[in-house]
Amino acid sequence: MFKASDKTANSYFSATIFPKILDIFPFSLVPIRGASRRCSLRPLIIFILGAPGVGKGTLSGFLKASFPGLTHLSYGDLVRYHDQIPGSWVSSLPRRQGTSSPLLPVHGAVRLLRETIETGAVQHGQMTWLVDGFPRREDHVAEWLKQMPQADRALYLFCPPEVSSNRIIRRARTSGRPDDVDPEKVWERVQRFHIECEPMLNALKNSGIEVVKIDAHRDLDAVKKEIFGCVQASLGCGMNREGDE
After folding, report:
1. CA neighbor of 208 nearest in space, from 138, 135, 145, 117
2. Which of 80, 135, 183, 199 suits a disulfide with 140, CB 3.0-4.6 Å?
């Protein structure tokens, strides 16, 4: 199902992801029913979604520490990494209005993720992924299904928009991101997410991907407990499906 990807994807994986991998879950190899064992393995993929400032990074770090074989792949970090490479196709893209962020075409957005996951799967045997911050729009879901296996579950974190905005503004002192500094731009980012969110979630549901909604506006320990159980269940399902073959 996967092939080795280009050198840029391998460079990103080697520089930012592979050194952090500790172990591979023995049940992370999920075969596709009816296909031969040699070519049927596909990665187990969990999306973690939510507005800017909802806590995706914090909870992704918690999950990665809790499940050592789980590879955290942040879409935002991936785009910024490629954008900083002189002459890369990402760095040559036009900027989103009012920000320094490149405006990626839908196909290109999925391509970045696909090449990184392919590299991890083929060259490093990493088959269990937490994809952070993607998909963001309905058309992202459609394109993902053209290029990639269906994700196993989507975890949607939600809290009031005002809470998200305030968290981003507070983190601006340490994030180093220019887009976090301007309160007006922060509010626009949060509002844009909420406008695009519902059609995206419906597209995930309609494609057969389970969407689990998690209230992130409460005690952090309670949120961690709930999200831990969701990921544990997803990994367990992967193991059970492999055993069914």
Report:
1. 145
2. 135
